[in-house]
């Protein structure tokens, strides 16, 4: 019972039950002797009896049935004489008064809507008499302890059950015209039969089965005659019975809880010491004093005496009052004195008790912050471990975050999807054959390579290659990023590494791929320079240990990707760990073609594929695989924006331009003068590229502002194809071409602009590299000075620095002279190109051929064949019409801002 009260759920259930009882039992349906539910229970019992009873019940005659169905009003009260419980008696006057008081007391603490029900309870007890237990409880309920309440509740349960049973028996007996005692006997017999059946000890005989059938058919007949049908066996009837006992239980429990939470408001009146003295003490009404928590005193009064002293208290004499005291000592003194003054002999003095009461409510409230704290910690720990691969709670934080890809379902990438990088593929193929046929290597005594580091610029396909390796070898693939080992808690990194390798060992053969390994694999010596990072270092150490820990038979291959192989710790790269170092560079012309081929497969286009791939590859020198994938996607988006039904060359070129130069800034409107300057600047570059033998010829030039701060944009074709070495001539021509913009401004305008600053930066860097790295200055000789912005001291002397300055200046001056000579000579051509640019804003290679004639130098066949103007449409606008009116109209519109 104690646990019952402690569980709020139980209390809630009780209160709900009471509420529902009270809610649904209207005045007309409250029939104490038989509730709606009890009639259902009764029906169920009748059926039980009917199936098993000898001979079956006799159908009741209509009269009986009608009187029963018409309700259980007072006309049926003949039953009260049959009350078998002899210990219950009718109420005496005193008892009745006591019951009324008790009911009133309960009513004063429950909502008025429930008063009707309490009256029904009262009626019930008035009619059936007060049980001894209830009588006893009622005598002293105001001072009842928790144990008294519990005992009472337990008794009420019992009483409710017995009462329900009794009513059911009476009901059935009436139906069967049989004394309830016989019915009880039959019920017991049925119960024992049931038990036997359950144990498999007794089997039904043929005869019994026959009898049962007969009973059932009789029952069927009865139902046809219009009797109330029995609910089907096993069916659940969700109804609540109103019975006085359960109502009383609920009321008592609610009251007790209420009293525990608000002990001060339990009805006792608050008085002062003077009142106490004059009204109670002096009149001899005080029975006992209880000092509560050393601050208040409860005065227990003699009820009868106080009823006489205060006859106008509505029949409810005050049983106790309260008053506050300053301190126990002063109270004792005052009491002592008062009793002395009243002449109360020492032996008859009022007894004083001392009690420390802790109200439940405030005790619970004092625990609330602690409980909240624990709940919070529990919640946070559950959330923290949520992603921890199965183990939840804060302890899951050390679990590896690696994603496992299932080789059968998740990894669809094969080597065929990885274009170019043939050498890398060959290298990595060996891992595949190791995972597929390890015995081929082992039988020759070869040690299996543990892992490979894939290094290269961003987007060159390192992750793709690792995935393809897993897809090709058909083994599980664990992918994790180096940064996922790093956590704010100490020890999490190494623990995740351990967990990753432990998982991998359970699933051999498999591949682990650690992307961006430089996040944890940085050289330990370098880290310590800035204060070090112990956590990262221990994570790295754990990786080193785990990779050492593989025994040769374990087929776990570790691949790692990084853009910065130079910063990696040497211990990681030593043989036995990452044995292979596979460098993946940006693709060559051929590689780009292959990558375009892979990505163009998904694009809807009817261009000649071979030509398209070649031309796009030629247009995108220096692009990595990811850039190419982006370009192709961008082209499809451009086409979609134009509502085109297929992607054509123009869309691809626009996409490439966008990837290289950035977004067109149509909103940036230059003044006509600025636009003119930009046109002549770009024309200067274009003419240099066209007429210098070693420079890159122009592919496209535009004066539409793009990206960040670029007012013009020119794209050049690599003259010698993909170049990996540059000679002095190439460098000089390139520098001269880069200065072409400024020289052109000088030649065509009175003043120069700031637009060439980026060109000067490029030229300076090229000239410095020629002097300090490439050994192209006779004065300085063959020396290489590392360029490191973080160096505090220059690695050369003041003299050398001076010489470098002089040489750089000389080289730039030479390039300038070279450029000036050419542009002075080709001033007219610069003008032509600039004016055309001003009118069209964009010029292509075809336009330059039209304006300047073919380039006077042979070009790399591989590149040039895609730009002969035959294979595909360029984005250059159509040639201007010969009709002067049409031209001026069109150009006039375009040139509005210039005029
Ligand atoms: N050789 C290639 N063939 C086909 N597609 C490629 C190739 N290289 C890159 N790509 C494309 O580029 C995308 C990005 O490549 P990936 O993620 O492998 O680059 P990465 O080298 O790992 O980059 P990072 O160093 O930044 O991690 C791929 O999803 C793929 O679409």
UniProtKB/TrEMBL annotation:
<feature type="region of interest" description="Disordered">
    <location>
        <begin position="49"/>
        <end position="96"/>
    </location>
</feature>
<keyword id="KW-0862">Zinc</keyword>
<dbReference type="InterPro" id="IPR041569">
    <property type="entry name" value="AAA_lid_3"/>
</dbReference>
<keyword id="KW-0067">ATP-binding</keyword>
<dbReference type="Pfam" id="PF00004">
    <property type="entry name" value="AAA"/>
</dbReference>
<dbReference type="InterPro" id="IPR003960">
    <property type="entry name" value="ATPase_AAA_CS"/>
</dbReference>
<keyword id="KW-0547">Nucleotide-binding</keyword>
<dbReference type="GO" id="GO:0016887">
    <property type="term" value="F:ATP hydrolysis activity"/>
</dbReference>
<dbReference type="InterPro" id="IPR050928">
    <property type="entry name" value="ATP-dep_Zn_Metalloprotease"/>
</dbReference>
<protein>
    <recommendedName>
        <fullName>AAA+ ATPase domain-containing protein</fullName>
    </recommendedName>
</protein>
<dbReference type="GO" id="GO:0005745">
    <property type="term" value="C:m-AAA complex"/>
</dbReference>
<dbReference type="InterPro" id="IPR000642">
    <property type="entry name" value="Peptidase_M41"/>
</dbReference>
<dbReference type="GO" id="GO:0004222">
    <property type="term" value="F:metalloendopeptidase activity"/>
</dbReference>
<dbReference type="GO" id="GO:0034982">
    <property type="term" value="P:mitochondrial protein processing"/>
</dbReference>
<feature type="domain" description="AAA+ ATPase">
    <location>
        <begin position="448"/>
        <end position="588"/>
    </location>
</feature>
<dbReference type="InterPro" id="IPR005936">
    <property type="entry name" value="FtsH"/>
</dbReference>
<feature type="region of interest" description="Disordered">
    <location>
        <begin position="858"/>
        <end position="899"/>
    </location>
</feature>
<dbReference type="InterPro" id="IPR027417">
    <property type="entry name" value="P-loop_NTPase"/>
</dbReference>
<feature type="compositionally biased region" description="Basic and acidic residues">
    <location>
        <begin position="76"/>
        <end position="96"/>
    </location>
</feature>
<feature type="compositionally biased region" description="Basic and acidic residues">
    <location>
        <begin position="174"/>
        <end position="227"/>
    </location>
</feature>
<keyword id="KW-0645">Protease</keyword>
<keyword id="KW-0479">Metal-binding</keyword>
<keyword id="KW-0472">Membrane</keyword>
<comment type="similarity">
    <text>In the N-terminal section; belongs to the AAA ATPase family.</text>
</comment>
<comment type="similarity">
    <text>In the C-terminal section; belongs to the peptidase M41 family.</text>
</comment>
<dbReference type="Pfam" id="PF01434">
    <property type="entry name" value="Peptidase_M41"/>
</dbReference>
<dbReference type="Pfam" id="PF06480">
    <property type="entry name" value="FtsH_ext"/>
</dbReference>
<dbReference type="InterPro" id="IPR037219">
    <property type="entry name" value="Peptidase_M41-like"/>
</dbReference>
<keyword id="KW-1133">Transmembrane helix</keyword>
<feature type="region of interest" description="Disordered">
    <location>
        <begin position="174"/>
        <end position="235"/>
    </location>
</feature>
<dbReference type="Pfam" id="PF17862">
    <property type="entry name" value="AAA_lid_3"/>
</dbReference>
<keyword id="KW-0482">Metalloprotease</keyword>
<dbReference type="GO" id="GO:0008270">
    <property type="term" value="F:zinc ion binding"/>
</dbReference>
<dbReference type="InterPro" id="IPR003593">
    <property type="entry name" value="AAA+_ATPase"/>
</dbReference>
<keyword id="KW-0378">Hydrolase</keyword>
<keyword id="KW-0496">Mitochondrion</keyword>
<dbReference type="GO" id="GO:0005524">
    <property type="term" value="F:ATP binding"/>
</dbReference>
<feature type="compositionally biased region" description="Basic and acidic residues">
    <location>
        <begin position="887"/>
        <end position="899"/>
    </location>
</feature>
<dbReference type="InterPro" id="IPR011546">
    <property type="entry name" value="Pept_M41_FtsH_extracell"/>
</dbReference>
<keyword id="KW-0812">Transmembrane</keyword>
<dbReference type="GO" id="GO:0004176">
    <property type="term" value="F:ATP-dependent peptidase activity"/>
</dbReference>
<dbReference type="InterPro" id="IPR003959">
    <property type="entry name" value="ATPase_AAA_core"/>
</dbReference>
């Amino acid at each position: 019972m104690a646990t019952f009260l402690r569980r709020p759920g139980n209390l809630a259930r009780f209160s709900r039950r009471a509420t529902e009882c009270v809610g649904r039992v209207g005045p007309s349906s409250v029939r104490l002797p038989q509730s709606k539910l009890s009639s259902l229970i009764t029906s169920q019992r009748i059926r039980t009896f009917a199936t098993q009873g000898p001979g079956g019940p006799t159908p009741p005659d209509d009269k009986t049935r009608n009187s029963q169905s018409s309700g259980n009003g007072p006309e049926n009260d003949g039953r009260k004489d049959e009350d078998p419980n002899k210990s219950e008696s009718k109420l005496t006057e005193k008892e009745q008064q006591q019951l009324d008081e008790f009911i009133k007391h309960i009513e004063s603490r429950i909502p008025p809507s429930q008063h009707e029900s309490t009256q029904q309870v009262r009626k019930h007890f008035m009619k059936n008499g007060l049980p001894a237990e209830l009588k006893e409880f009622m005598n002293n309920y105001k001072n009842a302890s928790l144990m008294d309440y519990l005992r009472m509740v337990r008794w009420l349960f019992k009483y409710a059950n017995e009462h329900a049973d009794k009513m059911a028996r009476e009901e059935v007996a009436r139906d069967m015209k049989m004394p309830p005692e016989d019915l009880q006997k039959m019920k017991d017999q049925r119960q024992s039969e049931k038990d036997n059946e359950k144990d498999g000890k007794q089997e039904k005989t043929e005869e019994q089965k026959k009898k049962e059938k007969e009973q059932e058919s009789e029952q069927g007949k009865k139902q046809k005659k219009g009797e109330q049908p029995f609910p089907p066996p096993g069916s659940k009837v969700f109804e609540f019975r109103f019975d006085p006992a359960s109502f009383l239980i609920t009321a008592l429990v609610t009251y007790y809880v209420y009293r525990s939470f608000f002990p001060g408001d339990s009805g006792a009146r608050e008085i002062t010491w003077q009142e106490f003295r004059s009204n109670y003490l002096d009149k001899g009404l005080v029975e006992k004093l209880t000092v509560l928590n050393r601050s208040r005193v409860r005065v227990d009064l003699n009820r009868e005496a106080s009823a006489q002293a205060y006859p106008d208290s509505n029949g409810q004499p005050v049983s106790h009052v309260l008053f506050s005291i300053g301190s126990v000592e002063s109270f004792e003194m005052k009491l002592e004195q008062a009793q002395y003054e009243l002449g109360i002999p020492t032996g008859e003095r009022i007894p004083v008790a001392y009690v420390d009461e802790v109200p439940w409510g405030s005790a619970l409230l004092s625990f609330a912050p602690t409980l909240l704290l624990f709940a919070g910690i529990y919640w946070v720990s559950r959330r923290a471990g949520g992603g921890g691969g199965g183990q939840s709670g804060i302890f899951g934080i050390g679990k590896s975050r690696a994603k496992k890809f299932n080789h059968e379902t998740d990894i669809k990438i094969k080597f065929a999807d990885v274009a170019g990088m043939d050498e890398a593929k060959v290298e990595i193929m060996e891992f595949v054959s190791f995972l597929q046929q390890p015995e081929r290597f082992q039988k020759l005594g070869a040690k299996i390579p543990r892992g490979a580091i894939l290094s290269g610029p961003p987007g060159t396909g390192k992750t793709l290659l690792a995935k393809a390796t897993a897809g090709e070898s058909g083994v599980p693939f664990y992918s994790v990023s180096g940064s996922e080992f790093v956590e704010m808690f100490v020890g999490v990194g190494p623990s995740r590494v351990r967990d990753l390798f432990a998982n991998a060992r359970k699933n051999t053969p498999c591949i682990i791929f650690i992307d961006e390994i430089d996040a944890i694999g940085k050289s330990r010596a370098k880290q310590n320079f800035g204060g070090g990072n112990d956590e990262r270092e221990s994570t790295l150490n754990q990786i080193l240990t785990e990779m050492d820990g593989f025994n040769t038979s374990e087929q776990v291959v570790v691949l790692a990707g990084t853009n910065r192989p130079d910063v990696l710790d040497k211990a990681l790269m030593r043989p036995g760990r990452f044995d292979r170092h596979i460098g993946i560079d940006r693709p060559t012309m051929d590689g780009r073609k292959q990558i375009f081929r892979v990505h163009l497969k998904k694009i809807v286009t009817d261009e000649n594929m071979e030509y398209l791939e070649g031309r796009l590859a030629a247009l995108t020198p220096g692009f990595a695989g990811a850039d190419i994938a982006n370009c192709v996607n961008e082209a499809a988006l451009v086409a979609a924006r134009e509502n085109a039904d297929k992607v054509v060359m123009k869309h691809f070129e626009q996409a490439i331009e966008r990837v290289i130069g950035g977004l067109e800034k149509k909103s940036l409107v230059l003044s006509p003068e600025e636009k003119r300057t930009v046109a002549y600047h770009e024309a200067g570059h274009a003419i240099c590229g066209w007429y210098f033998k070693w420079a890159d010829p122009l592919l496209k030039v535009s004066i539409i502002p793009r990206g960040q701060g670029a007012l013009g944009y020119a794209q050049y074709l690599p003259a010698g194809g993909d170049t990996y070495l540059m000679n002095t001539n190439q460098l000089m021509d390139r520098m001269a071409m880069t200065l072409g913009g400024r020289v052109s401004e000088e030649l065509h305008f009175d003043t120069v602009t700031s637009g060439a600053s980026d060109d000067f930066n490029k030229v300076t860097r090229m000239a410095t590299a020629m002097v300090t790295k490439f050994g192209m200055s006779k004065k300085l000789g063959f020396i290489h000075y590392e360029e490191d912005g973080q160096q505090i001291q220059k690695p050369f002397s003041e003299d050398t620095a001076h010489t470098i300055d002089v040489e750089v200046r000389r080289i730039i001056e030479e390039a300038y002279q070279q450029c000036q000579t050419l542009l002075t000579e080709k001033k007219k051509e610069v003008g032509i190109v600039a004016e055309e640019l001003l009118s069209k804003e964009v010029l292509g290679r075809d336009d330059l051929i039209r304006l300047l004639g073919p380039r006077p130098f042979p070009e790399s066949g591989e590149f040039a064949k895609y730009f002969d103007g035959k294979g595909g449409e360029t984005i250059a606008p159509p040639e201007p019409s010969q009709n002067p009116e049409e031209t001026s109209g069109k150009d006039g519109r375009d040139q509005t801002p210039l005029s």
